[in-house]
Amino acid sequence: MANKMDIQDQLAMLNSTSQQDEDDEGLASMSLVDHLEELRWRIFKVLIAIVIGSTIAFIYRNLLIKFLEAPLPDTANILGLKTGHPLVVTGLTEGFTTYLLISMVAGTILALPVLLYQTWAFIAPGLYEHEKKHAVPFVFIGLVLFVVGITLGYIVLRYPIQWLVNFAASSFTPLVTADSYFTFVAVFILVFGLIFELPLILTFLAKVGLVSKETLQTKRAVSHVIMWVVATFATPGADPYSPIILGIAMSFLYELTIIFIHFFVKQETIET
Hints:
By secondary structure, the protein is mostly helical. The chain has 13 helices and no strands.
């Protein structure tokens, strides 16, 4: 009976070794030129998706403009009280380039699923089978976190804008240009979206051994204090709401990172 079990164990080890050799041979079979060619095509597909998304956004640019102008107070443009337009342009091409900027940012957001999938498809051949099964959850979670981030950024946006516009309104005549406003909006919202990707970034660092759940738990109190200090100084303006909302969000993301590492990294360690 013992001999039979030993034979089965040896066969299992041989099958595991054979599977690993096949994976290694599959990786080795692709030359550097093949990798670069594959990367080129995947970047091309992402760019096509961004162009399509930007075209769709450009078609609905007027609705998009009205949506993004909602956080802007009426006092942002003294002339707007008469003309009905809260923003102004100061150059011949500024209106057109502003439309292009908004369309490209919106198109990039619409193309995010394609971007995440193409990124996963490029690195998937270099992963083991037990690692590949985490790819789909990572892509889905990354998409959800980014959408939540830009949504929260849009909600918070009105507080720093109102403070910045009204701060010097008693000394200067407000006249906010479309280019300055939408550049500020695009950067602000995208930064919130990228901040919400931190749990996945830290989880990846934990998978390669650069960060551990124990380290995050040990330094939890200090990390939360630092994040709240950063939130206080990172948000533009001096309104009391933006730092509080950003601080709560960053603390939530920190705890979410610990949960991700617990489920993804620990499970992988057991299986390997």
